[in-house]
């Protein structure tokens, strides 16, 4: 098997909290606390979870938008987390990002042409002015915007069109991996469908790998090959799509699936409604981080943190979960059976 | 039959702007029966929030202008004086807003904020109001209400703040509750808690609910009847099961088709999402024909020239489309 395009090992990012009289460090936000995953070439991995679970921090840490606390990030066989920024620079071309808010992620003082030409110019991807112009024109075709719109300013476009410009800018560097951080969350339903279709098409045509960070499980299921579910800075479960949706193996995933409202009125569904709120990442619970809200928690969960490991009862290979339930016999493990159909009412 | 609790007729809310009149809501009619949950759905800018604000007359006039009639328990709210209107707001009709972070006052404890409506409308003393506030917090499922009542909004999580908003809204036993995107700002597991709470409270309190949302999943979970709005007009209205099973208007069909269905990997129905091409038209120009004609796959000359009237296509199911047949399908 070929090596993965991106390999993340035991990544940690702790943000210091400054306070007190002398402005010393009084604690840490354990935003990402030891996660490992990989993305193959041309594959979509989705990172899902609720606000504050650390999914966006993972994206930014991979892009090295800030230094990481521990762990390593390997891009195509080269370790990039300890590179100096000048060494990393040419490699940055291979990883691009599309942000959530198309209103604040485009420079309002740059014309579309300049927004798209900047990465091409930066990475020396065009040898002449004519070639640059041709590349910009092609990018506009790719995201299905009219070529003559390159002379316009970002404010002249709607949200969906701006997101297309954001995608074109990411493509301009001819990357292998695009990190989409809630890239469709701010869009209206009908426009969201346009952008989702565009991303899928581009992936197939250009063989891009996507790290799709989202809280919208229906979109994730539609787009992705594999899913990683995060909770309080840890990966709770990672699995191929069908295996995860048909037979979730972590109680948190089960609750997430059952919580998503589905547009099918009157359908009976199995409900798992979680009690309480997500605990603070400043002081995460001991043992399993989910035990304070887990409907199945038992004594061991409160003291011992479960490792992320393959689940024997999973539908497909490569299905990992961090849960002690899978050490119990099948009759005592509520997640031994495939519950997806009952949860999603399909 | 007695008149419904709320009857909105030909509501027009227009705003004067430097570059023309913005027809945010343009001739919308619907009604809400006592104890019923009606959802108003549509995308950003379709006028759903302006409709709800118009019912409570929260639109500043000028630049806004509300015309038509809004009859609540037989009284036309648009003809009431401001003091009469104030006696209705928060008392007989109350509202929950989307942003629980910004709609609570950060410098007052939550007991004061719940008690405020009670003291104003029901003349309770400060002490009685606080006792009632504790009771309300218990009703909306906040643990340790006796301690929480003295806390400030920043000490509560997003889900808790939305529970407090619901407690404030329900404090005076309103007949009608308007919920404007009540769960949009919340995470899914918290959204599930709040929807569960709203369903439960509806049975105990018995208020009618107007739910404003863009999320068809939420609509399917709580609404009994649905009004679909597009570009300031009502384009379709039907009981909830009917609407999801046999949508008649091409816009509703497009909306439902453009949503990915959760569970698609199990049923093997992972198809390309249907797109609605193009953009919502500007509301500043008068559109002579059907408002959806510019994006509709079935539009003809007739649609561009003549605005379709709302017609009953099936029992209790109306749609504004020249071609929506009684059988549900669009004539090709």
From TrEMBL, chain A:
Cellular localization per UniProt: Cell inner membrane
Domain of life (superkingdom): Bacteria
Principal localisation: membrane
Topological type in the membrane: Peripheral membrane protein
Alphabetic keyword roster: ATP-binding, Nucleotide-binding, Transport
Pfam families listed in its UniProt record: ABC_tran, oligo_HPY
Residues covered by the ABC transporter domain: 6-257
Gene Ontology terms for molecular function: ATP binding
Family (UniProt): Belongs to the ABC transporter superfamily.
Protein name listed in UniProt: ATP-binding cassette domain-containing protein
Organism (species): Belnapia arida
From TrEMBL, chain B:
Source organism, top-level taxon: Bacteria
MF (Gene Ontology): ATP binding
Key words of the record: ATP-binding, Cell membrane, Membrane, Nucleotide-binding, Transport
Membrane topology per record: Peripheral membrane protein
Stretches assigned to the ABC transporter domain: 6-256
Location, primary (coarse class): membrane
Gene3D superfamilies linked to this entry: P-loop containing nucleotide triphosphate hydrolases (3.40.50.300)
Subcellular localization(s) per the UniProt record: Cell inner membrane
Record InterPro entries: AAA+_ATPase (IPR003593), ABC_Ni/Peptide_Import (IPR050388), ABC_transporter-like_ATP-bd (IPR003439), ABC_transporter-like_CS (IPR017871), Oligopep_ABC_C (IPR013563), P-loop_NTPase (IPR027417)
PROSITE patterns in UniProt: ABC_TRANSPORTER_1, ABC_TRANSPORTER_2
Family: Belongs to the ABC transporter superfamily.
Entry-linked NCBIfam families: oligo_HPY
Listed name of the protein: ABC transporter ATP-binding protein
Lineage of origin: Bacteria, Pseudomonadati, Pseudomonadota, Alphaproteobacteria, Acetobacterales
């Amino acid at each position: 098997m070929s090596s993965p395009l991106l390999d993340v090992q035991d990544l940690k990012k702790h943000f210091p909290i400054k306070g007190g009289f002398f402005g010393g460090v009084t604690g840490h936000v354990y935003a990402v606390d030891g996660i490992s995953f990989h993305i193959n070439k041309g594959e979509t991995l989705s990172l899902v979870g609720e606000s504050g679970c650390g999914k966006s921090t993972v994206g930014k840490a991979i892009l090295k938008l800030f230094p990481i606390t521990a762990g390593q990030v390997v891009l195509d066989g080269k370790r990039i987390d300890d590179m100096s920024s000048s060494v990393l620079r040419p490699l940055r071309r291979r990883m691009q990002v599309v942000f959530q808010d198309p209103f604040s992620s485009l420079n309002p003082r740059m014309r579309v042409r300049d927004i798209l030409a900047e990465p091409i110019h930066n990475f020396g991807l065009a040898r002449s002015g004519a070639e640059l112009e041709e590349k910009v024109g092609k990018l506009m075709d790719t995201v299905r915007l009219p070529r003559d719109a390159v002379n316009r300013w970002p404010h002249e476009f709607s949200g969906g069109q701006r997101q297309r410009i954001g995608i074109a800018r990411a493509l301009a560097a001819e990357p292998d991996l695009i990190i989409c951080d809630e890239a469709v969350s701010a869009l209206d339903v009908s426009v969201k469908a346009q952008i989702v279709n565009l991303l899928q098409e581009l992936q197939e045509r250009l063989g891009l790998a996507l790290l799709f960070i989202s809280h919208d499980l229906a979109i994730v299921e539609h787009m992705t090959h594999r899913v990683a579910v995060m909770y309080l800075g840890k990966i709770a479960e990672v699995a191929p799509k069908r295996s995860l949706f048909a037979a979730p193996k972590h109680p948190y995933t089960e609750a997430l699936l059952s919580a998503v409202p589905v547009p099918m009125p009157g359908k009976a569904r199995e409900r798992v409604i979680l009690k309480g709120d997500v605990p603070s990442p400043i002081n995460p619970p001991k043992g399993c981080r989910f035990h304070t809200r887990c409907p199945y928690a038992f004594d061991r969960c409160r003291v011992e943190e479960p490792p992320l490991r393959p689940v024997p009862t999973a539908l497909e290979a490569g299905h990992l979960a961090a849960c002690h339930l899978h050490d119990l016999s099948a009759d005592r493990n509520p997640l031994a059976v495939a519950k997806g159909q009952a949860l999603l009412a399909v | 039959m007695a008149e419904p609790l709320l009857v909105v007729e030909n509501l027009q809310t227009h705003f004067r702007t430097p570059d023309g009149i913005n027809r945010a809501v343009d001739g919308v009619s619907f009604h809400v029966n006592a104890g019923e949950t009606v959802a108003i759905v549509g995308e950003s800018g379709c006028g759903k929030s302006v409709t709800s604000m118009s019912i409570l007359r929260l639109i500043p006039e000028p630049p806004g202008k509300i015309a038509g009639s809004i009859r609540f328990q037989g009284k036309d709210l648009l003809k009431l004086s401001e003091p009469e209107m104030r006696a209705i707001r928060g008392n007989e009709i109350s509202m929950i807003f989307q942003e629980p972070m910004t709609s609570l006052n950060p410098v007052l404890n939550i007991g004061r904020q719940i008690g405020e409506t009670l003291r104003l409308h029901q003349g309770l003393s400060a002490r009685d109001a606080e006792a009632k506030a504790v009771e309300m917090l218990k009703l909306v499922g906040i643990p340790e209400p006796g301690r929480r009542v003295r806390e400030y909004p920043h000490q509560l999580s997003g889900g808790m703040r939305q529970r407090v908003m619901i407690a404030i809204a329900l404090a005076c036993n309103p007949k009608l509750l308007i919920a404007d995107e009540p769960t949009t700002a919340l995470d899914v597991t918290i959204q599930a808690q709040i929807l569960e709470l709203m369903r439960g409270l509806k049975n105990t309190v018995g208020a009618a609910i107007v739910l404003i949302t863009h999320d068809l999943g939420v609509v399917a979970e709580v609404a009994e009847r649905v009004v679909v709005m597009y570009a300031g007009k009502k384009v379709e209205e039907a009981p909830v099961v009917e609407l999801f099973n046999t949508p008649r208007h091409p816009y509703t069909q497009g909306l439902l088709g453009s949503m990915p269905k959760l569970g698609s990997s199990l049923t093997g129905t992972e198809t390309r999402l249907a797109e609605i091409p193009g953009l919502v038209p500007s509301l500043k120009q008068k559109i002579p024909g059907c408002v959806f004609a510019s994006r509709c796959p079935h539009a003809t000359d007739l649609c561009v020239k003549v605005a379709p009237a709302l017609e009953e296509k099936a029992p209790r199911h109306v749609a504004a489309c020249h071609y929506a047949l009684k059988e549900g399908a669009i004539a090709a």
